[in-house]
Design a protein that fits this description.
- The complex is a heterodimer of chains A (286) and B (320).
- Helix content of chain A is 43%, strand content 10%.
- Chain A is of the alpha/beta class.
- Chain A has a single domain, classed as Thiamin diphosphate (ThDP)-binding fold, Pyr/PP domains (Rossmann fold).
- With 320 residues, chain B is an alpha/beta fold.
- Chain B is built from twelve helices and 14 strands.
- Chain B has a seven-stranded mixed beta sheet with strand order 3-2-4-5-7-6-12, sandwiched between helices.
- The longest helix of chain B is centred in the first third of the chain and has 15 residues.
- Chain B starts with 12 loop residues before the first strand and ends with a helix.
- Classes of the chains: A alpha/beta (286), B alpha/beta (320).
- Chains A and B meet through α4 and α5 of A and α3 and α5 of B.
């Protein structure tokens, strides 16, 4: 259980990350604002409190493996990795530039800290399960954690992988599904209804919890207590708000991507984010 | 050298699936990282003996090739040496994006096996034929693509594949000549094997077509045409040095493959000829067409891919 102080500290980090994210958009243009902001609290807790990792030794054998299956959220991951000291901040301002090390979808050959290239949806869980299976065979205790989107769940390969992970009893594997309810073109319920996730994963043989994906304490508790059942992989269904913190963009299909049309509009978004932070701080301890 | 030991009236065939499990056991004994990854294909795919020998190094993921392929990539990421086996079209085409993004793009050493490649499943129809596996895989940087001509090639490939740094695709034929390589011969991915000398033209073939090409060369000799035959067991990387020397020696090159003539062995050879000049080429394979159905050897013959038909095509090409 996180103390209120620890929670506030993580909340501050998460909102600083969100403001950095908005500055990336302000300076560099179009990025996946919606999914990046919905996943930011999860990524911040993961890298600050859950994952065993060493920014100074990104290939450290003892590290846990994080796979960003929803690769389009990479801009959020870059911001978090930079905040942890994986690379210099200047690199963030090369987003969208020629020969950048931080392309729209993550590339492990370009940037230390990225474990596996993703972008096309529905790949990450299979790969994560393969890694987890190898670690089981070798009796290694490294965890494997993957972040998936809810729109991504339309890919059949996700469910192939879910079955395979259950068959091999991969309790060293945890996935978090960022259920923000929207995808590239519209609401997920409109494009292809895939919710509810909990009964689906339960019936696939997983241990499941549903949480508020913006509640730092719930995120930490869910991630730190996994696996919930021996011999079962863990699915955390995180209900989130797309473009969390930018009130004019929240839950709107128009903000899957966003390129602020003017610096002033980007600054508006940053102001919204600061106000949201204050409201989130007020909730802690209540 | 004349390939005297081949008996074209009574060829000795081998089904790679019947030997696969035992060879993989031998490979696995040399390297504890070897893992078999199946997609409901281990029994027919010949891996039962391997499963019995190494039950803890055997992963079966069902009729779900996309997942099996990604899972194999994950195993390789974590240091294993996975052999992912399924019917050729399913281990390449069905999961092409996983092969591309998770295996080829990352450069992981996953060995992909294409069971019953080409038209081995003669009667099973186009869903089970794979005459485009080289074509799609050849476009992937860093991919090694191999088509074994006989048992020795196949065995060597399984042993050598895990010594390569990146991904490897190996065809696993159902009916292929048991022995056609000289003994001893040195196997190396990317190095063709000269089976027969001939000054008039050179036939470059892979897989099952190496035998058919030797048969064609045997027929052509009686017609006064001396054809060299090369077992080009690796389509990528291609033995360009050997092709350059063949261009110099005869200037006439024939390529033969159990594959579409689009972007397979023939196209790879064409690319080299186009770069250097110095030869004309006859490409033999499936034209831009869907193969017909029927017993394997009859389908081959229907499409002109047996020794006598190949010889006839070459004779017409040479003499007009």
């Amino acid at each position: 259980m996180l103390s209120d102080k620890e929670t506030l500290d993580l909340l501050e980090k998460s909102y600083n990350n969100r403001i950095t994210l908005l500055n990336v958009l302000k300076k560099c243009g179009d990025a996946h604002l919606g999914g990046a902001s919905s996943a930011m609290d999860i990524l911040t807790v993961l890298y600050n409190k859950i994952l065993k990792h060493d920014p100074k030794d990104p290939k450290w054998e003892g590290r846990d493996i994080f796979i960003l299956s929803a690769g389009h959220k990479a801009v959020a991951l870059y911001v978090v990795l930079e905040s942890m000291g994986y690379f210099q901040k200047e690199i963030l301002w090369t987003y969208n530039a020629l020969n950048t090390k931080i392309p729209m979808h993550p590339d492990e050959k370009l940037l230390a800290g990225i474990e596996f290239p993703t972008g096309s949806l529905g790949h990450g869980l299979s790969v994560a399960a393969g890694i987890a299976n190898a670690y089981k065979m070798d009796k290694k205790d490294n965890r494997v954690i993957a972040l998936l989107g809810d729109g991504e769940a339309a890919e059949g390969a996700v469910w192939e992988a879910a079955l395979g992970a259950a068959k091999y009893k991969l309790d060293n594997l945890t996935i978090i599904i960022d259920v923000n309810g929207l995808q590239s073109e519209n609401y997920t319920s409109d494009i292809l209804p895939v919710a509810p996730f909990e009964p689906k994963y339960l019936s696939f043989g997983w241990a499941v919890r549903t949480i508020d994906g913006h509640d730092i304490k719930q995120i930490y508790k869910a991630l730190s207590e996994a696996p919930y059942e021996q011999a079962k992989p863990t699915a955390i269904i995180a209900n989130t708000v797309k473009a969390k913190g930018v009130d004019f963009a929240e839950n709107s299909p128009e903000y899957h991507h966003w390129a602020p049309p003017t610096d002033e509009r980007a600054d508006d978004a940053i102001e919204c984010m600061k106000k949201c932070y204050v409201m989130e701080v007020d909730k802690v301890g209540k | 050298m004349e390939n005297n030991r081949l008996d074209f009236d009574n060829p000795q065939w081998v089904d790679f699936t019947s030997i696969f499990g035992n060879v993989l056991i031998e490979v696995a004994k040399t390297d504890s990282r070897v893992i078999f990854v199946g997609a409901d294909s281990y029994r027919g795919g010949g891996a039962i003996s391997y499963r019995n020998a190494f039950p803890d190094r055997f992963v079966e993921l069902g009729v779900a090739e996309q997942n099996a392929c990604g899972h194999a990539a994950g195993l390789a990421f974590a240091g294993k040496k996975p052999f992912f086996s399924a019917i050729a079209n399913f281990s390449t085409g069905r999961c092409f994006e996983q092969v591309r993004d998770d295996i080829a793009r990352t450069g992981l050493n996953v060995v992909i096996l294409g069971r019953a490649a080409g038209i081995s499943y003669g009667t099973a129809g186009p869903t089970h034929h794979s005459i485009d596996d080289f074509a799609i895989l050849r476009a992937l940087p860093g991919m090694t693509i191999a088509d074994p001509a006989d048992y020795a090639d196949f065995k060597n490939m399984l042993f050598e594949a895990i010594r390569l740094p990146g991904p490897v695709y190996i065809r696993k034929h159902k009916q292929v000549i048991k022995k056609i390589n000289p003994e001893p011969y040195e196997f190396k991915f990317g190095k063709g094997v000269m089976l027969r000398q001939g000054k008039d033209l050179a036939i470059i073939a892979c897989g099952t077509m190496v035998y058919q090409s030797c048969w064609a060369a045997h027929i052509l000799k009686n017609e006064g045409i001396n054809a060299a035959v090369i077992n080009m067991h690796t389509i990528k990387p291609l033995d360009t040095e050997l092709i350059d020397s063949l261009m110099e020696s005869s200037g006439k090159i024939v390529t033969v493959e159990e594959h579409t003539t689009i972007n397979g062995l023939g196209s790879a050879v064409s690319d080299e000829i186009a770069k250097k000049g110095g030869a004309i080429q006859l490409k033999i394979g499936f034209e831009d067409e869907w193969p017909t159905d029927g017993p394997y050897l009859e389908v081959l013959d229907w499409h002109g891919l047996t020794g006598p038909k190949i010889a006839e095509r070459i004779k017409t090409w040479v003499r007009g």
